[in-house]
Amino acid sequence: MTVKIVTDSVADLPPPVVKELGITVVPLVLRFGAETYRDSVDLTPDQFYQKLKTSRAFPATSVPSPQSYVEAYDRLVEETDAIVVVSVTARLSGTRDVALQAIGEMKKKCRVEVIDSETATMAEGFIVMRAAQAARDGAKLDEVMAVVYRNIPRASFLAAFDTLEYLRKGGRIGRAQALLGSMLKINPLITLKDGLVEAAGRTRSRAKAIDQLYDYVAGYARIEEMAVGDTACPEEAGALVERLGAIFPAERIYRSKMTPVIGTHTGPGLLLVAVLGDKEEL
After folding, report:
1. May I ask the CATH class of domain 154-278?
2. How far apart are CA 178 and CA 160, in angstroms?
3. What is the pTM (predicted TM-score) of this model?
4. For the chain, where are the alpha helices, taking DSSP H only?
5. What is the rounded distance in angstroms from the CA atom of residue 89 to the CA atom of residue 81?
6. Domain boundaries of the chain, sorted by first residue
7. pLDDT by residue (tens digit) across 88-107?
8. pLDDT digits (tens, 9 = 90+) for 157-176
9. CATH 3.40.50.300 applies to domain 4-153
């Protein structure tokens, strides 16, 4: 039986990819005051940013309920006897713990393995895609897990921010704390290292920050997948995709508006590039 792949909405996978590869996505939860939404299900990115402008309440996020994972597992167990769950980094979210907890609440048991991707956004998504492709091609559970572990160190991203205030408010700023408090207007760059937010530099202009994103991609010796994501700055994202076409086929670069849960912690103005590849020739 084909191994089934489960992930969370922070992986930011495009719906056509989810459908094509048969991936199950469990959404995180977004709250505006008393209103609750499932990430990218009940609220689109465009609706979220409009609401962010008009709402008096600052949005908050929470992990999926155990029941949402239980329902996913119980549905898949009718089709398989093995499930691999790839989660957003456990150092920023309790989502992995919820996925583990739900295993004990399944009505019908099968083998379920939960793996921490140690990352987020489409970097996490690329790991999920490789797992799903392996499963589709007939790989057994242990082989799919090996694919996941092999690609975790190969998936990463770099993001340019307008402000780190949203990361600070959400308690996700991690080692990028050092970039706060400058009297000068800066354009901070962050990444994830060992599952935690880490400063990756700062520039004095948005244009130079975007140059850094380009140089980051140019530093790869081999690229298998690439994505450009943004939060409410689509023109800049489109221009970056066109520019990156000199390095990697532009038509193969995934575009993402980023999910509302991600936008809650970044605010508008985030521009991100995610890569699956190798820094050095193998």
Report:
1. alpha beta
2. 16
3. 0.93
4. 15-21, 45-54, 66-76, 95-103, 121-136, 141-151, 165-169, 206-218, 234-244, 260-266
5. 26
6. 4-153, 154-278
7. 999 999 999 999 999 999 99
8. 999 987 666 666 655 444 44
9. no
